[in-house]
Description:
Blueprint: E1 3-7, H1 12-23, E2 27-32, H2 35-47, E3 54-58, H3 64-77, E4 83-86, E5 91-92, H4 104-119, H5 121-125, E6 131-134, H6 159-178, E7 185-190, E8 200-201, H7 204-216, H8 220-232, E9 237-242, E10 245-247, H9 256-272
Parallel strand pairs: 1-2, 1-4, 2-3, 4-6, 5-8, 6-7, 7-9
Antiparallel strand pairs: 9-10
Amino acid sequence: MPVTVITGGTDGIGRALASTYLERGHDVVIIGTNAQKGNAFLSSAAAADAGARAHFLPADLSLVAENRRVIEWITERFAAVDVLILGARFHRSTRVETADGLESNFALYYLSRYLLSHGLVRLLQRADHPVVLNFGGAGLTGTPRWNDLQLRQRYPGTGALGHSAALCDLLGVHFTALYPRPPIHYILNHPGVVSTSFAGEYDFATAAHVDGLRTSGKPVALAVAQILPFLDSTATGLSAVLEGQALPVDTPVFDPEAAAALHEITEKLLAGLPVR
C-alpha cells in the first residue's frame, strides 16, 4: 500500500492533499501541533471507512529532536514512502528563537524540511515513483542572507518566510544532485496566495493584511488541482512550479554551488547543536 507523509497536513492545502491521497488508497500520515485538527482528520477518515489508513503524529517540527523522532516513527512503521509533502510553516512578525537557539522560520520552514528530506530518503528510494513536494519559493524569493542566515539583524517580518523559501529551493537543488539514483522527483512549488488559515503570530498591521488575503486568496481546491498533475507525473529530478506552471530550474537562483554551500553550512550547524 502506498504511503504519503504530510507536514502541515492539518490545514489548508496539506489537509486537502491528505484527503486526496486517502481517497486514492494511501496510508496517510499528517504531522502537526494542533491535536484538535489532527483528530478531526482521523474522525473524517473513520467516517469514510479509511480510519485504519489515517495517522496523526503530533510533533513540533521547529525542534531538531522532534524531526528525528518523526523520522524514527515513520521508519519503524513503513517499508517505503511514496509521497513526502513538506508544508509546515508558522509566521512571526517578530524574531523568535527555538529551544535549539535557531530563528523560528529557519528552524521550521527550512531545517525541518532538510532533516525530513534527507532522513526519509532511503524510504523514498524504495518507492516505485517517489516524489517530494516542498512548498518553497520556486526561485522567486531572492538570495539568502549568507552572512546572517538566522536573521539576527534587521528581521524582515513577513520576509522571513521568503528567506526560508529561498533556502528550501537550494535544498531541492542539492538533494537531487546527491541522490540521482534511483531517481526522486523533487518539486519546489509556489502556490500563490491561497485562502488558508495563515498560521502565525502577527502584529496589528500584518494581521489586517492577512485578513484580506484570507478573503481574496484563491480556493484551496484550485491550488490542489494546480499541483496534482506534477505530483502524479513520472518526471524525475528537480521541478519548480508557480501556480500550476513549470518554471526553468537552470537559472542563477538554483545555483548548484550555492546549494552545496548551504548543505555544508547546515551539516556543520547540526553537528554543533547539543543532543537533546
